[in-house]
Design brief:
Layout (H helix, E strand, L loop, with lengths): L2 E2 L3 E7 L2 E7 L1 H8 L8 E4 L10 H10 L3 E5 L8 H5 L7 E2 L10 E4 L13 H9 L3 E4 L9 H10 L3 E3 L19 E7 L6 H14 L4 E4 L3 H7 L13 H12 L4 E4 L11 H11 L3 E7 L4 E2 L2 E5 L3 H13 L5 E8 L5 H15 L3 E2 L1 H4 L2 H14 L2
Parallel strand pairs: 1-9, 4-5, 4-7, 5-6, 7-8, 8-9, 10-12, 10-13, 11-12, 13-16, 16-17
Antiparallel strand pairs: 2-3, 14-15
Helix pairs in contact: 2-7, 4-5, 6-13, 8-9
Length: 381
């Protein structure tokens, strides 16, 4: 039985000296399936299908639908993924593993506060292992720390993949960054507003304009989609900036790197990882993300969210401690509102902040891709 615990870090020679390359072992699991064919995944959301908790399932299905054969959610069985999660078209929702099409992977599709495996999921995970499915999880509660799961995986010769496992131990050096590589970073006024989606969509939009852009994952869902990255919220606080810096150094041979953000400077729980990323990445430009209608910190209703002008001001001040940087555009998450309401909001915010604003899912990435390319032309005429 092979377990997967952490990313591999290698030093590679380059014209700029030695840089660090992250190779998440999860990508190895992707490649070795079915003689190089795509994975066939069952995504587990049972009892947790709201848009916040099930954001891992939603994003994996949105961007890797061709690899998903079913969603397992007992109460929604008989419906489709589109009905349940708003993505995935006619991917079926099933009540049991036996009802799902043939698969080789069970993917834990939730990201609850605290990252614990729900107790009633244990029999499902064990059944999956017994059926020969590898299990992929991005929770803080590691599969490989559970003796029962480990023994079952050994007996049935399957992999347990803890996407969040890492042992980063390097501090930032504040050097070696290639000026010709534009660094873009998504930020927000709260957690779970769409920072990963914004970074991924902008990267795809840049690639569509023949720009060599790389999406850089910093969380479990992004790593599941991209196949590499670093789960920075599992890195010891002293080494967050070092891990972020290494992500840039590993990818600065690209013309643009777009790094997904984590947490928020305004979140009482997660602000530390946000600042560590911001200082380690030393971005050139920021994309400000927010969800329409949200007025208080998610899960902490006693903390009101500041108005966007203040959010912009604080992020720019924090970023400029390390490197010249400014907000260049706004990604509006209008998923709970009508198309007309979202269009009005984008106009309002654009006028208020003097920045291009769009809903990336509704409108596509072109508006923010243009903002990135404008910044690139200004910095590298």
């Amino acid at each position: 039985m092979a377990t997967i615990r952490k990313p591999i870090v290698q030093e590679l020679a380059s014209p700029q000296g030695f840089v660090y390359h992250f190779q998440c072992l999860f990508s190895g699991l992707q490649r070795e399936r079915n003689n190089g064919m795509a994975r066939r995944m069952i995504v587990l959301t049972d009892g947790y299908s709201d848009s916040h908790t099930a954001k891992t399932a939603i994003c994996v299905i949105r961007y890797k639908a061709e690899e998903v054969v079913a969603v397992l959610d007992v109460d929604a069985a008989g419906r489709t993924s589109q009905d349940l999660l708003g993505v995935g078209a006619d991917i079926p929702v099933v009540a049991t593993l036996a009802e799902a099409p043939p698969a080789d992977t069970l993917l834990v599709g939730i990201a609850p506060p605290g990252g614990k495996i729900p107790p009633h999921w244990r029999p499902i995970v064990l059944e999956a292992i017994e059926k020969g499915l590898s299990v992929v999880s991005g929770l803080h509660d590691f599969l490989n720390d559970d003796p029962q799961f480990v023994e079952a995986a050994r007996q049935h010769n399957v992999k347990l993949v803890d996407v969040r496992a890492t042992d980063e131990r390097d501090v930032a050096t504040c050097g070696l960054m290639r000026g010709e590589c534009l660094r873009i970073h998504t930020i927000a006024n709260d957690c779970s507003v769409g920072k990963m989606v914004a970074a991924y969509e902008i990267t795809r939009g840049l690639n569509g304009r023949d720009v060599d852009a790389k999406f850089v994952a910093t969380g479990q869902t992004g790593i599941m989609i991209e196949g590499d990255g670093c789960p920075v919220d599992r890195v010891i606080s002293d080494f967050v900036s070092g891990a972020a810096e290494k992500l840039v150094l590993a990818n600065q041979h690209h013309e643009v790197v777009v790094v997904e953000g984590q947490g928020s400077l305004f979140h009482p729980r997660y602000s530390c990882v946000t600042l560590g990323l911001l200082h380690g990445l030393m971005p050139d430009g920021l994309i400000l993300c927010y969800e329409m209608g949200r007025e208080v910190i998610f899960g902490m209703e006693d903390f009101p969210i500041p108005e966007l002008g203040k959010v912009r001001e604080f992020y720019e001040a924090a970023a400029n401690i390390m490197h010249p940087c400014r907000v260049i555009g706004v990604a509006v998450n209008g998923s709970k509102f009508s198309a007309a309401e979202v269009a009005d909001e984008c106009r309002r915010v654009g006028n208020e902040l003097g920045l291009p604003a769009c809903d990336l899912i509704r409108h596509g990435p072109d508006t923010l891709v243009d903002a990135v390319l404008d910044l690139r032309r200004q910095q590298n005429p």
